[in-house]
Amino acid sequence: MAQPQESTVAVMIDCDNVAPEIVDFALLMAAQAGRVTLRRGYGNRATLGNSWQEALVRQAFTPCLQFQYAAKKNTSDIALALDALEALFDQRADIFCLVTSDSDFAYLCRKLRERAATVLIVGEAKTPDALRNACDQFFEWSVQEASSPELPDLQEPPHPADQGSEAKATGSAPLPKRRPRFVIEAVSLLAGSTPEGKVSLNSLGSYLKRADSGFSPGIYGHSGLLNMVKTYDLLSLKQEENGQWSVSLAPKPETA
Question: How many Å apart are CA 180 and CA 184, to the nearest integer?
Fold first, then answer.
């Protein structure tokens, strides 16, 4: 039986309009919709050559430099809109994640949706209603999203026997166990969109891998995703009747 084809997502950033810190949040939001196959950042020479350069290089975006042919004329917006329509007609993407707070893109959103494409907008609090209402789903980013701290590192001392075997296998001391907060945010996002309020462990792993191709529990000192999730006090694991594991947010303790 043929497997259903995974949706393809285009992430297109209006770099002249938003801050570079938004890019990680945008990729997390886009990853829940499907496989991100197109990553582009649009801006003028001052924008792409300064504040955005590190972010675009780190997240493997293609920079699309647009020169200003006249003062106060934003050619980046036109280039982004044309490339989005071209990607739609070429069937390179069926979901578009536009990262901007500029209401000028409301018309582009409507045209994409008229062609049966799904449009997501990732923008700041200043995003006007005209753009929020023109898309299928709006995700608001704030500075707090970029600076959310990691959970405290686990201080569980490794068992001497395990420590010795791991050191021999890797040739060095085992990595300390860490609990990054983005795992909780991923569970909250995925489980919150289901009636049961939970997500399968396999789906969680696929999402984390789509959001960051370099993700691996081993980087954070864990032997696997199951063991990693077990260390979170704010997450709850359950083994279903079919043997698969599901993850949800742990219920909040009742107060007197």
Answer: 8
Q: What angle do CA 235, 210, 144 make, to 5 degrees?
A: 60
Closest CA to 56 of 18, 20, 81, 98: 20
DSSP string, 80-122: HHHHHHHHHHTTS-SEEEEE---GGGHHHHHHHHHTT-EEEEE
The one-letter amino acid at 130: A
Cα 249 to Cα 241: distance, rounded to the nearest angstrom: 20
The per-residue pLDDT for 247 is: 93
Task: Find out whether 249 and 255 touch, Cβ atoms under 8 Å.
Answer: no
> Residue 130: which of 159, 157, 101 has the closest Cα?
101
- Please choose, from the candidates 155, 221, 147, 205, the residue with its C-alpha nearest in 3D space to the C-alpha of residue 181: 147
Phi, psi of 38 (to 5 degrees): -130, 120
> How confident is the model at residue 156, as a pLDDT?
46
**pLDDT in the model for residue 8:** 93
Domains of the chain: 8-146 (3.40.50.1010), 160-249 (3.30.420.610)
pLDDT at site 209:
83
Residue with the two structure tokens 């990054």: 180
pTM over 0.70: no
Contact 27, 122 (CB under 8 A): no
Contacts of 116 (CB under 8 A, 6+ apart): 94
How far is Cα 194 from Cα 197, in angstroms, rounded to an integer?
A: 5
Mean pLDDT by 10 residues, the chain (256 residues): 72 94 91 91 88 91 84 81 96 96 95 95 93 93 61 49 45 76 88 87 88 83 92 91 91 67
